[in-house]
Write a structure and sequence with these properties.
Layout (H helix, E strand, L loop, with lengths): L6 E3 L4 H11 L3 E4 L5 H6 L7 E4 L9 E4 L2 E5 L4 H5 L2 H6 L1 H8 L4 H6 L2 H7 L6 H7 L3 E6 L2 E6 L4 E3 L2 E2 L6 E8 L6 E7 L9 E10 L2 E10 L6 E2 L1 H7 L6 H13 L11 H22 L4
Parallel strand pairs: 1-3, 2-3
Antiparallel strand pairs: 4-5, 5-10, 6-7, 6-10, 8-9, 11-12, 12-13, 13-14
């Protein structure tokens, strides 16, 4: 199908983009990579009168280290994440997650900020951001505000981002040396959304779990932080009993939507299995003394 008519705008700065959002009113959409918005426009599920393309704003791209955190411009592509030497060294979980997203064609254009801002529970970055304890810089007419990923996702396609704001930057604390990580994803074919997926960041104190973050993809209306599963592991050895309990508690918070990828019962069971596998893989990656 052909989209409804719209006016195209290509600002060269964040300030110009914010100005356009204020001038054009509520019937405007931001364009990042376009992989979610453009298909919706072709089907006329979305019919904005104005499209503001962020692709020409150089300041919204890039990966850098500032102190003990990594900062990523919202228009940085999945391809750039996947091939960043800095991320490979400091945030390998993010690199692994980027490799699971869609296919190379999509990764060349798809952006981390677009993935996060869309608020789709099937997207991979929300759970990765929860596991990495990320924060988001939201820029609007009153300046910047920084919000935690945990609490940013309100529901399906709903986030804390206000209509006159742009997600401009992602900030992620660098995990301690020796941390284990894994993103385990079950999908039917290359390019598909997850049937179920789990992101894990793990820290050990000897043979016991010191801290663990567990986040779930496509298990509910938003990415889910498995707080009870995390708490159950702290102070425990990583063994069959603790893994089974963590998987059980992760499954207990799942409320997936049945679709062509499986019914709810199957998806919940696979969420438990991905949680178990992600914890095992993260533990295996921790350097032993």
């Amino acid at each position: 199908m052909i989209p409804a008519g719209f006016e195209y705008h290509a600002p060269r700065s964040v300030a110009d983009a914010i100005r356009l959002l204020g001038e054009l009113g509520p019937d405007v959409k931001l364009l990042a990579g376009g992989h979610s918005l453009l298909p919706m426009m072709k089907l006329r599920f979305a019919q904005p009168s104005h499209l503001v393309d962020l692709g020409k704003i150089a300041g919204l791209r890039g990966i850098s280290q500032v102190g003990d955190e990594i900062r990523i411009g919202a228009m940085t592509t999945e391809h750039e994440l996947l091939h960043s030497a800095l991320l490979a060294e400091k945030l390998p979980l993010l690199v692994e997650g980027a490799g699971w997203i869609a296919d190379p064609q999509v990764r060349y254009k798809g952006t981390i900020g677009g993935d996060i801002s869309h608020g789709d529970p099937g997207n991979d970055h929300p759970a990765l951001m929860l596991a990495l304890d990320a924060s988001f810089v939201l820029t609007g007419p009153s300046g910047e505000r920084v919000v935690k990923a945990d609490g940013y996702f309100l529901g399906m396609y709903s986030t804390l981002l206000e209509p006159d704001e742009i997600l401009s930057e992602i900030r992620i604390p660098i995990p301690p040396a020796g941390s284990g990580w894994s993103y385990q994803k079950l999908k039917r074919k290359t390019g598909d959304f997850a049937t179920a997926a789990t992101a894990v960041l793990l820290q050990m104190n000897g043979a016991r779990v010191a801290k663990v973050n567990i986040a779930l993809t496509n298990a509910g209306a938003t990415a889910l932080k498995a707080n009870a599963a995390e708490a159950s592991l702290v102070g425990k050895a990583v063994d069959d009993a603790s893994l089974n309990e963590a998987a059980r508690l992760a499954m207990s918070i799942c409320d997936p939507t049945p679709d062509q990828r499986g019914d709810a019962e199957y998806k919940i069971a696979m969420c438990g299995e991905m949680t178990r596998r992600a914890l095992q893989a993260a533990y295996a990656r921790i350097a032993k003394p």
